[in-house]
Task: structure prediction
Amino acid sequence: MYTDAFLIEKDQFSPWLEVLHQEFRLIGPIEENGFYTFAEIQSVRDLALNYDTTMLGPRKFIYHPEEKICAFRKTPEGFEIEPLGKAAPQILVGVHSCDLHAILVLDKVFLKKGFQDRNYRMWREATVIMGIHCTGVCPNCFCASMGTGPLFEPKEGYDFLLTDFGDRYLIELLGERAEKFILPLKLQRATESDFKKKQEIGRKVENQFKKKIDTTHLVDIILRNQNHPVWKRTAEELCLGCTNCTMVCPTCFCYNQKDEIGFDLIHYERKRYWDSCQELHFAQVHGGNFRFTRMARLRQFVTHKLATWVEQFGCFGCIGCGRCMTWCPTGIDLTEIAKEIMVTEQNKTIRMSEAQQFENG
Result:
């Protein structure tokens, strides 16, 4: 795998993107109605690479909220399968470290050995990913606790990785595709001092985090406390079942399917769309619903993100972006749920220790 790093002046960076824009859809963070959002841009001038966060991560351009998965047409001879088409080449610009990790998590889901999702693979391969390191911390962000930021460390999942040095970027390359795009610019190679500067920026940002969570024994603690009163209390007092948490979560992958048939009964399409474990219908099976209560559905979301995901995919399902709590209408905070459970565990340990000391005289 080809890796290298260069320095690119900002007044050179924008024209370079404009050249790439002639061949690729360009998608990145823009400011819209006082908020930042990932959207297809018409001009590089629209990019807001100093953004803090977005409601939806860039996953929606790789794993679409709704997409066609098959189509066929009735003919006099029988049925004819219609081709689904190809993904348009695109560049995702300005993806933060947490969202880069989220894409790696989705890769584990949709590109796992033995099964590869056709649509996801198609869009993933057609997408050039240009990450950028954060220069600040949002109030609800705790990516440092989850090991997903503020600097992106894995050498996988992206093509370019930017670090803002003020008047220029440190730009790290990964793979031959990135090399082909950047080498014609004849940039100055990065040195050891540039990487030291990058690490200093990371340490400065890391010191800004207010929200933290200890993940050392988090999986076992969550799984041992499935009947903790925090689940019922939070569900009954706060949770609306609105599904905002799952809709904005950049690693949620659940979907449902629907069939659309024309009135002429000739053309058929099957589509999938994002679904949510917080919907009452989600756990409806023949004979009943195994998550009928709001408590069970809330517990499922938090437990999956902070515990059972590790068994499934070898990593946490939470990347610490804080979107679920930011966009929760009642401010449910999964880190506070986890911390309350941890306090209970600590109190149990203290009581057991005191009891043993009493028995031993």
About this structure: The radius of gyration is 23 Å. The chain has a mean pLDDT of 93. The first strand starts at residue 3 and ends at 9.
